[in-house]
Design goal:
By secondary structure, the chain is mainly beta. It has one helix at residues 130-140, and strands spanning 26-29, 32-39, 46-52, 57-58, 61-63, 67-73, 75-78, 81-84, 88-91, 96-97, 100-102, 106-112, 116-120, 123-128. The strands form three sheets. It has a six-stranded antiparallel sheet. Strands 4-11-7-8 form a four-stranded antiparallel sheet, with no helix packed on it.
């Protein structure tokens, strides 16, 4: 007899498998695209593949949770540093950004544990969280 029962109580628990190589890129702007990999209502975590053409500039924003970035190919200018293919960066909750620029055609994995708020001189310009991504994914279906 086992010391502790480890069988899940929720028999409907499942892994989430996404065949990202089979997905089409969703155009999100003039030089930006994404593939939504995961949205997690229970934690607020979301994961996307992002593709930015050279010259794309993401607006100023603030992370309202930690995030993980892994550069698959290309080069990004982030604050006063450059991220190259193979680089990883963790950005903590509260991190404030100016613009982020694609110095080359760039693809990267972005995993965020909560929302991001975009802002400009006139205040809040936009907001991204798991809910917006889930709505976008449902609209594509």
């Amino acid at each position: 007899m086992p010391l502790q029962e480890i069988k899940p109580i929720n028999s409907e628990l499942m892994d989430t498998l996404v065949e990202a190589s089979q997905m089409e890129w969703e155009k999100t702007g003039d030089k930006s695209y994404r593939k939504i990999l995961f949205t997690g209502a229970e934690t607020g975590t979301w994961a996307v593949l992002l593709k930015w053409d050279k010259g794309f500039v993401a607006p100023s924003h603030k992370h309202l949770s930690g995030s993980h970035t892994f550069i698959l190919k290309g080069k990004l200018q982030v604050r006063d540093g450059t991220l190259n293919a193979g680089d990883y960066v963790y950005e903590p909750n509260g991190m404030l950004h100016g613009e982020t620029t694609a110095l080359e055609d760039t693809e990267y994995l972005f995993i965020c544990n909560g929302p991001i708020v975009f802002f400009g001189e006139d205040g809040i310009a936009g907001y991204t969280s798991w809910e917006e991504l889930e709505r976008a994914r449902n609209a594509q279906a």
